From TrEMBL:
Keyword vocabulary terms for this entry: DNA-binding, Transcription, Transcription regulation
Domain of life: Bacteria
InterPro entries from the UniProt entry: HTH-type_LysR_regulators, LysR_HTH_N, LysR_subst-bd
Pfam families per record: HTH_1, LysR_substrate
Domain HTH lysR-type, residue spans: 1-58
Protein name: HTH-type transcriptional regulator GltC
Length: 294
């Protein structure tokens, strides 16, 4: 069954005349008759009865017309929803981001964007690295903001920036008077780590691998806030970004002097996918705001 057959059927049912319906649809009468006959053949019943020159819906036709109108209405609603979503002046952008970015980076980014494009809305998803890339691969998300470890050739990548990572210790730790530490020293102290579901864990693990260090990890947490809380309670030390939310914990923040300890973040989106007008607006904004690409 083709969608045009439904439209043709509704036109004939409303006008009750094959010739008039053909003119309304800019079709030949024979083409319209063939379409209606094919529809009736597929349904297995006649939908009209002839009354002089008019066509009158029979019992089956009335049943089918009711459903056909509802189907047409739903299709039109779907078309309108899609138009609204991609409307460059008032569409919707689907954005996924790592959990650790929800307290500071994402609110700041969205606030800057909405100052310029107040009518564009966002559909937000907090995700792990793997979940984020799956959402984009399945076309359930337009963009993601994440670390680069798992970004492969299926995705485009635009660097947003790098932020320093610090070694966080409790206030009474023996290192609090140091200006900096070397990762080598972490072999000797209890360490609070992150589960692999947290995007930052991949960056930190690569730092340890680079130095061939296996830290004395006493606990793997799901979230940065949990790590900061455990460190402040004296459970151990941890490598963390110095975000506003984490600075609420009573911690000492020490620089890591070797190796370079940074968190890299960027925007990813799927290759070989045509971007909607509203998505192009967002991407242009990102490229303007974060002009350095890697």
């Amino acid at each position: 069954m083709e969608w045009q057959q439904i439209e043709y059927f509704i036109a004939v049912a409303q006008l009750q005349h094959m010739t008039n319906a053909a003119k309304e649809l800019s079709l030949t009468q024979s083409a319209l008759s063939r379409s209606i006959s094919a529809l009736e053949k597929e349904l297995g019943v006649a939908l009209f009865e002839r009354s002089g020159r008019s066509l009158v819906l029979n019992r089956y036709g009335r049943i089918f017309l009711e459903r056909a109108k509802l189907a047409l209405m739903e299709i039109e609603k779907g078309k309108q929803e899609i138009t609204n979503l991609i409307n460059p002046s008032a569409g919707v952008i689907s954005l996924s981001f790592l959990h650790m970015l929800g307290a500071q980076l994402i609110p700041s980014l969205l606030n800057s964007f909405r100052e310029r494009y107040a009518d564009i809305r966002f559909e937000l998803h907090q995700s792990s690295n793997n979940e984020l890339l799956t959402l984009i691969s399945n076309n359930d998300c337009d963009f993601g903001i994440t670390t680069p470890e798992f970004v492969n050739d299926s995705f485009h990548w635009h660097l947003m920036g790098k932020s320093e990572l610090f070694l966080a210790t409790p206030l009474n730790h023996r290192w609090v008077n140091l200006s900096s530490v070397n990762l080598e020293e972490l072999r000797e102290v209890p360490y609070v780590g992150l589960k692999t579901s947290c995007g930052l864990s991949f960056t930190i693990n690569k730092l340890f691998e680079k130095k061939q260090i296996r830290p004395n990890t006493v606990f793997h947490a799901d979230e940065l806030d949990t790590v900061a809380g455990l460190v402040s309670a004296g459970f151990g030390v941890a490598i963390l970004p110095k975000t506003l939310g984490l600075q609420n914990h009573p911690l000492v923040w020490l620089k890591v002097d070797e190796p370079e300890c940074e968190l890299t973040l960027g925007v990813v989106w799927k290759k070989n996918k045509e971007l909607t007008p509203v998505s192009n607006i967002f991407l242009s904004f990102i490229r303007e705001k974060y002009s350095t690409e890697c």
